[in-house]
Design goal:
Largest sheet: 3 strands, antiparallel
Strand order of the largest sheet: 1-5-4
Number of helices: 2
Radius of gyration: 17 Å
Shape: globular
Number of strands: 5
Oligomer: single chain
Number of domains: 2
Distance between the termini: 21 Å
Length: 117
């Protein structure tokens, strides 16, 4: 479906910030990075591109100067089997729980695979 090598120095998403009056906001650097990724993807896709609702397998490989992206449609039975929960949030819970127990810092994780079954 989508297979691309994108010139992109890896960056992490900053945590949300809390303003003076209790509201939460996304840091400017994160907004700029997300916008740059969207722009790069838009330049590679035939526009207008309609986002799919199909279950997907996404692989991201991060190098020093490039990020490789593979997105493929997978069998439709997988999405509902664990209640439609967000895969990234399922993995984040486990990583946060293992921090300081299994490893000293989650920066040590260099290969992470999350699969809904």
């Amino acid at each position: 479906m989508i297979h691309a090598s994108i010139p992109w120095v890896p960056k992490t998403k900053d945590r949300p910030r809390h303003g003076k009056f209790g509201h939460t906001y996304t840091p400017t650097a994160t907004k700029k990075s997300e916008a740059a990724i969207i722009e790069e993807l838009a330049s590679r896709l035939l526009l207008p591109y309609e986002p799919t609702e199909e279950p997907l397998a996404i692989a991201l490989y991060f190098g020093e100067t490039h990020t490789w992206l593979d997105v493929d449609v997978v069998a439709p039975h997988t999405e509902k089997q664990i209640g439609g929960r967000d895969l990234d949030n399922l993995g984040k819970l486990w990583l946060d729980a293992m921090d300081k127990v299994v490893f000293k810092n989650d920066k040590q994780v260099v290969d992470l695979r999350l699969v809904k079954m």
